[in-house]
Amino acid sequence: MSESDRPDQPRARRAATVDRYRAHLAAGQARVTTMLQLPLEESMSGALVRTTDGRELLNCGGYGTFFVGAGHPTVLAAVREQLERQALSTRLLLNEPTAYAAEALTRVAPPGLTKVHFSCSGAEAVETAIKIARANGRTRLLSMVGGYHGKTMGALSMTARAVYQDPFRPLLPHVTHVPFGDVAALADALGPDASDAFVLLEPVQSEGGVLVPPEGYLKAVETVCRERSAMLALDEVMTGMGRLGSWWAAGREDVRPDVLLAGKCLSGGLVPVAATLSTAAAFAPFDADPYLHTSTFSAAPVAMAAVRAVVGVIETEDLVRRAGELGGRLLPALRAVVADTVPHLVTEVRGLGVLLGVEFVDGHVAAEFLLDLLDAGIVVNHSMNALPVVRFTPPAALTPAEEDRLVRAVRTACTALAERFPAPARAGV
Length: 429
Ligand SMILES: Cc1ncc(COP(=O)(O)O)c(C=O)c1O
What we know:
By secondary structure, the chain is of the alpha/beta class. The chain has helices at 10-24, 27-36, 73-85, 96-108, 122-135, 153-158, 162-165, 183-190, 217-228, 249-252, 280-288, 301-316, 319-341, 363-375, 400-420; strands at 41-45, 48-51, 56-59, 115-119, 140-144, 175-178, 197-201, 231-235, 259-262, 274-278, 346-352, 355-360, 378-379, 381-382, 389-392. It is 42% helix and 16% strand. The strands form 3 sheets. Strands 4-10-9-8-7-5-6 form a 7-stranded mixed beta sheet, sandwiched between helices. Strand 14 (381-382) and strand 15 (389-392) form a beta hairpin. Helix 1 (10-24) runs antiparallel to helix 2 and helix 4 (96-108) packs parallel to helix 12 (301-316). The longest helix is centred in the last third of the chain and has 23 residues, at 319-341. Residues 63, 121-123, 126, 148-150, 202, 206-207, 235, 237-238, 263 line the site of pyridoxal-5'-phosphate. Pyridoxal-5'-phosphate (PLP) binds next to helix 5.
């Protein structure tokens, strides 16, 4: 064992890992870790992440992956059992785990979405949705300003952020981005006959900075799509599977999309998996030719065992309701802490269920807060399309002690931030 591999040498292990990243992975990641003296993650369970320097952090990050907690025993047992029996597929023969997973997921999906194609990432689920659109004659693609749908070439065409798009142009043609939350703008962009159009949006923009649209917006989008014969797809990669306190955001306004995307916590944070659900009508071209859209690792039995188990865990542990209740307590608690400590640095605290965002006056202060939170023992994520917004995506089943720890840590971090960025003195005070 080399010196740097010894478990009692956390600094040496970090230095060696950073060197390997610098040499063989994206050097920028190595630079950030060194500059900020970030620890290495070593293991996870439930809501906790353990680092190689022996800290135990509360995990409100993972880009929303750990809704059921990390390594949930039921999901882990299902994955282990399947892993030992058969991890991947022959791609010729059918298997039972895939059939069960598809049945379980479509059972809890919004009505009408009876078909599903499984893939390995959210972006791939978006690619599948775009191909469903094209196969149905939808050549005009519309998504929302500030929306995030991943970074493969098709998904990136729909992800409206120049900094990620510009180096890779030309992207897909005939893509339009319309303002989020503005139904009239969508109607204008669609025109009177949108039978050649496909609309993709997130019900709540997550990477866009946890933007919750006005109530009724989603229903109005559905209505305008139906009136103009546009195909409607909801990207619920982040908002789905219970995170907002409902199985799907679609269900909050009884919206029936043609296509719906799931990912992130779909496998309980154990195996990379995502899904594109669809109506039978929209899926018809894929039904007709089973080789039209395939990939070697699609619907891998080991991932399918996880999907089926996760649906079961969310149901038996009542996690949808618990996510709504936890978010209902956390949102006012975070607002109160911010109001007490850093009202001059925060423009808004918002969210739904356990998708919560704190918007700072600028991205620099938000980054400082993220590091203060890490010092206070909490992992969160920034927002890729909105740098001033720090996002909290805790598991739905935090214990009361973890919930209390989270709020106390936010107060500690806010207090530290206020010391470095004090409120300007008021005249006459
Ligand atoms: C709403 C939404 N769609 C799609 C994606 C892309 O998913 P992935 O990063 O798994 O490709 C993300 C990722 O953050 C997302 O938030």
